[in-house]
């Protein structure tokens, strides 16, 4: 039994303190157990080629909610006692078990320290570290490109240097870089015959003493002797060598060229004549179209309708198309304006008269400088041809068609039988 209430209160306080310390001890022990179970990543490995770097590691725990953080720092910063090193984070809280360091352009001759930690639901593991020197640890890659070119009976090998991640030559990092060239003769069954090697620092190498018209294959490997680095060989490149062309091959080419020229000329001539015949048959067809036309037959008063089958050349006269003759008007002045006739003429010769040719030659009997016309004659009993003439008064104007008269003539004197007459055009 408790002596008083004060003793009971002290007992309760001591019990509560003991319970608190027991809980605190239990939490501490549990935290240490979890931390002990979360181990850091293992087997850090660098996968490199020229200036491409990738850090990878292993994780043996069964937890799937794990994340990793990767950091790096220059080694000389760790040796400095004046200031603490500054770690650069390359990959943070990533579930991948690798981290690409290529994009950070690590100095090729520098030395770096890399570290990785694991994180599971807020519980982190310890850091695991690895030292990395690109110049020493990075692998050297093969040539980026190899090409073969014919050089007479030999072959030229054109080699392109290995490239960095920024497409620069690796010779910037390996000044003494050279190549091992492996070449061999390829047989019919693609087997290598007489393998030979050649060492050269040049990018263009001529393979000597090769057989003409023979297939050869080439493979190249990069080398550097400072850390004894060797790349893998490139895939084989094959090409046939050349040589002097034999006489039968030259003759064959000559004959072939002649045959080709002959065929080209033959096709050209045939095409020309075919085009000519086609155009001629189109523009001038052998079969006339079935036209019908009228023809004025000789000795007939009515035209006749003919077809292409009719003998039009025998039935029709030839027709000549001539331009229309100009028609000239001749003005005859009144009698009082005419000059007096010369003495010795007959009384009826004072008047005008027209003379016509009895042979029917078509001459009107009036001579004019302007062409065909009709004239008015004074009152007379009869003309020399027996034609009646109108009475006294002004002359009538008649139009007479005349051919082959020169245009543009001016007024001139015309000798009409016994008298001279003025004629105005």
From TrEMBL:
Sequence segments annotated as region (Disordered): 332-401
Keywords, alphabetical: Membrane, Transmembrane, Transmembrane helix
Keyword Manganese: no
GO cellular component terms given for this protein: plasma membrane
SUPFAM superfamilies on file: Fibronectin type III
Stretches with biased composition (Low complexity): 357-374
Domain Fibronectin type-III: 142-244
InterPro entries, sorted: FN3_dom, FN3_sf, Ig-like_fold, Interferon/interleukin_rcp_dom, Type-II_Cytokine-TF_Rcpt
Pfam families: Interfer-bind, Tissue_fac
Transmembrane stretches, start-end: 247-273
Coiled coil regions in record: none
Biased composition (Polar residues): 375-387
Alphabetized Gene3D superfamilies for the sequence: Immunoglobulins
Biased composition (Pro residues): 332-344
Keyword rRNA-binding attached: no
Residues in the signal sequence: none
GO molecular function term, any single one: interferon receptor activity
PANTHER family, alphabetized: INTERFERON ALPHA_BETA RECEPTOR 1 ISOFORM X1, INTERFERON/INTERLEUKIN RECEPTOR
Protein name, UniProt field: Fibronectin type-III domain-containing protein
Protein's organism: Cyclopterus lumpus (Lumpsucker)
Organism lineage: Eukaryota, Metazoa, Chordata, Craniata, Vertebrata
Gene designation: LOC117750122
